[in-house]
Amino acid sequence: MDKILLMLQLQATLNEATNGEKWTEGITKNGKVINWKRCIYMECAEMIDSFSWKHWKNIDKEADWANLQIEVVDVWHFIMSLAIENYSQTSRGQVDDLAQNVSKLGNFVKIDTKNNLFAQQDDIIQKIESIMFDTLSKDTLNLEKLISDFFDLVVMAGLDLESLYKLYVGKNILNQFRQDNGYKDGSYIKVWAGYEDNVMMQKVLEENGTIKPDDLYKELTKLYLALNKS
Predict the structure, then answer these.
(1) Which of 174, 185, 203, 206 has the most C-beta neighbours closer than 10 Å?
(2) How many angstroms separate the CA atoms of 125 and 50, rounded?
(3) How far apart are CA 124 and CA 17, in angstroms?
(4) What percent of the chain stands above pLDDT 70?
(5) What is the DSSP letter of 196?
(6) pLDDT tier for residue 146 given thresholds of 50, 70 and 90
(7) Taking the chain, what is the end-to-end CA distance rounded to the nearest angstrom?
(8) What domains does the chain contain, in order, with CATH numbers?
(9) Band of the pLDDT at 203, cuts 50, 70, 90?
(10) pLDDT (tens digit, 9 = 90+) per residue, 17-42?
(11) Is 191 helix (H, G, I), strand (E, B) or coil?
(12) Mean pLDDT of the chain
């Protein structure tokens, strides 16, 4: 439960910094409507592009497993945001209540077991589409089913709670870094020396698996400043 709670707390903090204190009401500090369901199914569509599913193009291209895992983490950002919003709007409880209930889901034990094996591509795509289906209804939400389906996907994508947490913290810090460096106004540079910032973030994590969030932020700053000087 501790890692689930920490991720939920980090996500709530990021959302407040990005969208304002009243983000759980479904609107940003700039008056923009927030639609977490749409964020989820659009990100899922991008996730499917990790595979050569098109019958007319790049039919023999290898699956991008690393990108799949990053996209899984991106979807997790949005699922947690939707869950926090839902708990707030329906008075179900606070973040710690949500974390406790998530840890009680039957599928939680699956991600709490060490895993690094990928499922078959077709099975993964079907699970991604199940998650999309969970969020395509405008008026209804079965939050427990959505999170359970996501935990299935985590395992199918060769991840477990430990690796999900590690990648999530990395992406969370990267998202904070983006916001602090012009992501919203379009001035942020996303490709660093030929590599997307996602890839650079993963490289830092691989080189130092025990790096703390604050130190990761500092390392990203160092790399970004070097980019601007070149």
Answers:
(1) 174
(2) 10
(3) 33
(4) 99
(5) E
(6) very high
(7) 44
(8) 2-163 (1.10.4010.10)
(9) confident
(10) 999 999 999 999 999 999 999 999 99
(11) strand
(12) 93
- State the Cα–Cα distance between residues 212 and 80, nearest whole angstrom: 22
Q: Which two tokens stand for residue 145?
A: 């089913």
Contact of 190 with 196, CB cutoff 8 Å: yes
In this model, does residue 1 exceed pLDDT 90? Answer: no
Contact 119, 165 (CB under 8 A): no
pLDDT in tens, 150-185: 999 999 999 999 999 999 999 889 988 999 999 988
Burial string for 50-78 (b: 16+ CB within 10 Å, else e) reads bbeeeeeeeeeeeeeeebbbbbbbbbbbb
In one-letter notation, the amino acid at residue 201 is M
Beta strands in 7-70 (DSSP E): none
CB 39 within 8 A of CB 23: no
Q: Report the C-alpha gap between 173 and 102 in whole angstroms.
A: 23
Cα torsion at 161, 164, 167, 172 (round to 10°)? -100
The residue length of the chain stands at 230
Q: Pick from 72, 82, 182: which is nearest to 134 by CA?
A: 82
The HSE-up count of residue 45 (CA atoms within 13 Å, CB side) is 8
Give Cα 175 to chain centroid, integer Å: 10
Report the distance separating Cα 9 and Cα 4, nearest Å.
9
Check: CB of residue 141 under 8 Å from CB of residue 86: yes
